[in-house]
Amino acid sequence: MNLSVGPAPAEPEHVSTIGGSTRFVPGQSNDQITIVNGKVQLGQRLKDLWRNRELLVLLTRTELKVKYKNSVLGYLWSMLNPALVLAIYYVVFKIITKNGQPNFAIWLFAGLLVWNLFNGAAMGATGVVVGKASIVKKVAFPRELLALSVVGVAMVMFAIQVVVLVAALLLFGITPDFTFVTLLPLALVTLVVFTGAVSIFLSAVNVYLRDTQHLTEVLLMAWFWGTPIVYSFGQISGQLAKYPSLLWMKYVYLCNPVTPIVMTFQRAIYGQTQYTYMGNVTHVLPNWGVGTYAELDGVVLAVSVVLFLLALVVFGRLEGNFAEEL
Amino acid sequence: MAVAIEVTDISKQFRLYSEKHTSLKERVIHGGKMPFTPFWALRDVNVEINQGETFGILGRNGCGKSTLLKCVAGILKPTTGEIRVRGSLAAMLELGAGFQPDLSGRDNIYLNGSLLGLSRAEIEKRFDDIVAFAELEEFIDNQVKFYSSGMYVRLGFAVAVNVEPDVLLVDEVLAVGDAAFQRKCMDHVKKFQREGRTIVVVSHGTDTIRQNCERVMVMNHGRVITVDEPGEGIRVYLADLLGVGTLEGSESGGVEGNVFAIGTVTAEHGGNGARTHMYPGESLTVTADLDSLAAVPSAMATIAIHDDRNELVFASDPDDPACQMEIPLGGGVVRFFFPEVPLLDGTYSVSVGVRSANPAETAIFDWKDQVTRFEVANPGRATGRIRLPLDVSFRLRSTGHTGEVPAVGAEFAPLAGWEESAS
Questions:
Q1: Which residue, among B231, B183, B175, has the nearest Cα to B202 in the 3D structure?
Q2: B226 and B94 co-located in one domain
Q3: Is B257 in the same domain as B235?
Q4: Among the partner residues A22, A54, A65, nearest to B103 by beta-carbon distance
């Protein structure tokens, strides 16, 4: 071969070994070498995600634009579904079965706020890589960003719902428990990391098993009812308290990572742990202090971070063949 | 000169499934078994592409050239091996560049630019150039799904080149758009070359490769056949891969119970004997061995040359007295001599015949269709079929003061002196 051999180029400091994908990042210098091979390196993946954060924002905005056409009515329309869900549960549990919980709408809202973010992102992310096949097959970029952009969209929806919630709180004159409101940032971060992990995992698996989408729908429905949103954690532990031998099941129940997050939101926003209805005292939330809630959320956060890294590894393994599978 | 792209031992295996199960349900039903045939789209590919070089990849459909490009672009993960790319890279693969049909052209420019690694500010700076290049000023706020395919491709190319990557990968897209746009693309490619950027072009159009590339890699069945300068690379591609080098069995015709037969026919070029192929402009000698059981007082030898698409390139003039000859009993050897063959690339076949020279008589004594072959490889950059003799000169419009630039407003003299300056 006719190769000109120049002076051996000094090995640049920023050699990036990339699993499965070349990442050409903003501001990449002329001398930077990108390596494409079959290896997956987690550290590089995280670095690439961070360096492409601007792209993540753009992808999220693109997604919002496509979905809601950047119009106020579009966003209002997107609130229709959560509003309807809330209305149904309210009618069924408050009016038909008369559970007697005061401000039940706010209770529901606090839990659904969390659930809508998780559910919306997980459902959306499942189909996102397949849906964006035209991009995935033509351009190399960290494809995890597609899944994360769906999480971004869910976070925007979350923000809109928070505005509605605050308005509702002011309207009904309900005071949240501000000691616990300080926990909300931690709970939200935990929720986003966990949701991100699930979304990244599902988006990759669905490329290979296209019925993941339907499976996810069913599983998420079961998951929803396994989380104390419509009913309360207090009711579960109250029922279990009748059977001391089954008390350990409380901890099994708490293994659902969404549960502590939902409970933190409920504790902060709903503000009370028990109510009296027709002479009976019902405990809806355990009477733990801020520290206990923080500890629980902290454990879930730690688990979520591990899951997130695992999801990235799995995604990296599967990503290499995306372009062929789509 | 540094190496821009270093491809080391790259192999890529695809799995060909007779039946592909893309759902969990099917996987469970079939017990997770999915029989497949391994197919190696790339096999042990090693190549180094230098910085500032325009590098062509030639090969038939399915030879792995697009797969290699996708691996370099990072879209496909190679099964084994490693590719190192120095600097930023943009790829134009197939048609379009991954647009979102629901977004406007404007939004797609931002999205695509970001995917190629530009920041928002950088895209804003280049936005007008991109739109102007794509000639889409009127339609930039329309959704891309309403674009024509030409508009789609123009936008894709405009984004890819305006990203100003250090390495540009182009897959057969130079052949799209109308003539004016193609010219614009070529101008841009030339500009890239001047700026010292690396360009990798995948094509099966030998003309594009010859005119633009400094080196070419020929691939077949996922393997590298050769890496060479374009003239030689194209010759190998045409001869070895397109299969034009094989004769489809020569037919012969003639009168039943013939007394006359054409034997061995050979073609030899006048260039260096070690070469199997000739260069344009060299001489060619075709000799045909004749056996005759009778003396033929007025025979006429004819020769015809066909190209690899079986189109007639040349047939000898039947009225040419040089073709007429007297053949004695026992026969002899006919020699056809072309002092200069101005053909450019390709493999050409030679047909030889002998017929009666008497215009009233149309008897064909014997003919051999496409009996032998010669190959022309063009080491230069001229493209087309024929190397026409060409002379180019320049003169100033005003005459009499050769070499002097006329003053502004100076009167233009009539076109005298043209004959002298154009030798």
A1: B175
A2: yes
A3: no
A4: A65
Q: Estimate the share of chain A in helix, then strand, then coil, as percent rounded to the nearest 5.
A: 65, 5, 30
Distances (CA, A) of A231 to A19, A252, A270: 45, 17, 13
Residue B247 lies in a domain: no
- Biggest alpha carbon–alpha carbon distance for chain B: 93
Say whether both B267 and B398 belong to one domain: no
Reference B98, options A217, A184, A134, A31; nearest CA is A134
pLDDT at A146: 94
Residues B237 and B256 grouped into a single domain: no
Same domain, B211 and B259: no
| Cβ within 8 Å, pair B74-A29 | no
Report yes or no on B384 lying in a domain.
no
CATH number at residue B100: 3.40.50.300
> How many distinct structural domains can be found in chain B?
3
**B93 and B8 in a common domain:** yes
**Which residues are CB-contacts of B63 (< 8 A; sequence separation ≥ 6)?**
B219, B220, B221, B222, B241
ipTM: 0.75
**Nearest one of A52, A49, A23 to A36, comparing CA atoms:** A23
**What is the strand order of the sheet B332-338 is part of?**
B260-269, B284-292, B332-338
CA B245 to the chain's CA centroid: 17
What pLDDT is recorded for position A222? 94
The answer to whether residue B143 neighbours chain A at the CB level (below 8 Å) is no
Please give, rounded to a whole number of angstroms, the shortest distance from the CA of B50 to a CA of chain A. 8
B406 falls within a domain: yes
Domain boundary among B241, B264, B286: B241
Q: Which residue of A has its CA nearest to B4?
A: A33
Domain housing B411 = 391-423
Last residue within a domain, chosen from B186, B216, B241: B241
* Residues comprising chain A, all counted: 326
User: Model pTM greater than 0.80?
Assistant: no
> pLDDT tens digit string along B221-231?
889 988 988 88
B208-to-A58, A297, B200 alpha-carbon distances in Å:
37, 62, 12
Q: Are residues B53 and B136 in the same domain?
A: yes
Using CB atoms and an 8 Å cut-off, which of residues 125-144 of chain A contact chain B? Answer: 132, 134-141
> What residues of chain B lie within 8 A of the CB of A319, using their CB?
77
pLDDT category of residue B332 using cuts at 50, 70 and 90: confident
The predicted structure's pLDDT at residue B247: 43
Chain B contact for A242 (CB, 8 A cutoff): no
> Can you tell me the mean pLDDT for A126-135?
89
* B112 part of contact set with chain A, CB < 8 Å: yes
Same domain, B223 and B278: no
CB B375 within 8 A of CB B236: no
**What is residue B175's predicted lDDT score, i.e. its pLDDT?**
59
B118 touching A, CB under 8 A? yes
Cross-chain Cβ contact B48/A1 below 8 Å: yes
Q: Best mutation site among B34, B69, B99, B114 for testing chain A: the one with the most A CBs within 10 Å?
A: B114
Spatial contact of B35 and B209, defined as CB atoms under 8 Å apart: no
Chain B contact for A320 (CB, 8 A cutoff): yes
Residue B205 resides in a domain:
yes
Q: Do A22 and B89 touch (CB under 8 A)?
A: yes
Residues 6+ apart with CB under 8 A from B189: B54, B170, B174, B199, B212
Residue B197 DSSP one-character state: -
Minimum CA–CA partner of B93 in chain A: A138
